[in-house]
Structure formats: structure tokens, C-alpha cells
TrEMBL record:
Pfam families from the UniProt entry: adh_short (PF00106)
Keywords: Oxidoreductase
GO molecular-function term, one example from the UniProt record: oxidoreductase activity
Designated name of the protein: Oxidoreductase
Domain of life: Bacteria
GO cellular component: membrane
InterPro entries the record matches: NAD(P)-bd_dom_sf (IPR036291), SDR_fam (IPR002347)
SUPFAM superfamilies assigned: NAD(P)-binding Rossmann-fold domains
Entry similarity comment: Belongs to the short-chain dehydrogenases/reductases (SDR) family.
Keyword Repeat: no
Length: 241
């Protein structure tokens, strides 16, 4: 039976991916900050689900990850879904810094721990949820878009490092478009998707071990055109919330 660790699965996309993997017969270890949500999830299928309270911004997060892996009996897939994002037009420093603590510091802490584990055990699959926001800097959410660009580049670097060291580690950088989450509270964004829909696309991408998965096809086209827009024009676009 395949085994997956899912970080940030107490709500949203991570929770939906966890449910789909359980239905497909995986044993999963679910980690997040909310103990009651974790217990509730485990009660749905206690034979297939292990749980662990974990905050990616805390120094003890790797210790808690290792405990969860031990209880699960190993790990074939590491799936990182924990992340935060806020609109911050007023550039409130604490919002920007908190975003970086989770999306950069916490991300790096957990992904390097997974890389080290798979390096020692002979290989595995690391998948992370980043965003199409990493394609261009979004003025309404500076830290969010910048930290997502960091995640894209970091996974690129680890993929190259894995090949340099001749390791059997695969990577999937999952880049959803606009999903109905707290970041998009007002719901005025185009082509807004729901977490269950996104999760189905993600599980298919994981099955085929896609290196980069833009969710979904409409957003692949959008990103293609975004990348063609010159900087001087992008800075003048009337992007509104």
C-alpha cells in the first residue's frame, strides 16, 4: 500500500487531495495546526489515516514530521499544501512577514526535510502547491506572489540537485489558478475554481508524475499570455480585486 504525508490537510485543497488518495487505497499521514480538524478527519477512516499536529513555522516541525512518518511506516509521497496569502494593498509589514514565514521559511523547512528523507531511503516523490501567482508580481498581494515565485524556483533547484546527485526523487510543482479561498474573499476573480475540482486535477497530475502542473487548462493559456506581457505594460495594467 502506498503511503503519503500531506502537510496542510485540515481544510481546502490539501483536505480534498487527502480524501481522494484514501479512496484510491493510500495510507496517509495528515498534518496541520488544528487538532480537532485532524481528529475529525482520522475518524472517517482510522485504518488508513494517521495524524500529527504540526506548524511549519515552528522549529520542531521536522521532529513532528519524522514522528508521523514513523507511525505511518514510511513515505512514498510528500505533499505540501500549507501556505498563506493575503491581499495587502497597504503593505502592512506583519502581513508581508507572516506570509514569508509560512511560504518561504516553513516551505523550505519541510521540503528540505522530505528531500533528506528520500535521499536516505532511495527515492520518492515531492509535490508542492505553489500558484500561478508566481508568474508575475501581483500588486494586490506582493508577498504572496513573491513567495510563490520563490517556491517555483526552489523546486527547480532541488530537481537539478537531485539529478546532480543521481537521486531517484521526482518533483511536481502544482500551480493552481484562482481558487475559492480566504485570499480571494470577494469572489470577483475570473474562472474561480473550487477545492474539490482542483484536487481531482492534482491527483491526476500526481499519478502521472508531472513536473509542473498548471491547474487547469484555461490557466495554462492565461499563464502563457501573462509571460508574454512586457514589464512596462504589466505595471500599467488596471488589475482590480
Amino acid at each position: 500500500m502506498k503511503k503519503a504525508i500531506i502537510i496542510g490537510a485540515t481544510s481546502g485543497i490539501g483536505q480534498e487531495v487527502a480524501r481522494l488518495l484514501v479512496r484510491q487505497g493510500w495510507r496517509i499521514g495528515v498534518a496541520g495546526r488544528r487538532k480537532e480538524a485532524l481528529r475529525s478527519m482520522q475518524q472517517t477512516n482510522p485504518e488508513q489515516i494517521e495524524i500529527q499536529c504540526l506548524d511549519v513555522t515552528e522549529d520542531n516541525a521536522i521532529l513532528h514530521l519524522n514522528r508521523l512518518v514513523d507511525r505511518l511506516g514510511g513515505m512514498d509521497l510528500f505533499f505540501l499544501s500549507s501556505g498563506v496569502g493575503y491581499q495587502n494593498r497597504d503593505l502592512e509589514p506583519e502581513i508581508e512577514l507572516n506570509t514569508a514565514r509560512t511560504n518561504v521559511e516553513g516551505f523550505t523547512r519541510m521540503v528540505t526535510a522530505a528531500f533528506d528523507y528520500f535521499k536516505k531511503t532511495g527515492g520518492g516523490h515531492i509535490a508542492v502547491i505553489s500558484s500561478i501567482a508566481g508568474t508575475k508580481g501581483l500588486g494586490v498581494a506582493p508577498a504572496y506572489s513573491a513567495t510563490k515565485r520563490f517556491q517555483n524556483t526552489y523546486i527547480d533547484a532541488l530537481a537539478q540537485l537531485s539529478r546532480m546527485q543521481r537521486l531517484n526523487i521526482r518533483f511536481t510543482d502544482i500551480r493552481p489558478g484562482f481558487v475559492a479561498t480566504d485570499l480571494l474573499r470577494n469572489g470577483k476573480y475570473p474562472m474561480l475554481m473550487h477545492a474539490d475540482e482542483v484536487a481531482r486535477h492534482i491527483v491526476r497530475a500526481l499519478k502521472h508524475k508531472k513536473r509542473v502542473a498548471v491547474i487547469d487548462g484555461r490557466y495554462s493559456l492565461l499563464v502563457f499570455f501573462w509571460q508574454m506581457i512586457p514589464r512596462w505594460l504589466w505595471e500599467r495594467l488596471p488589475i482590480k480585486n
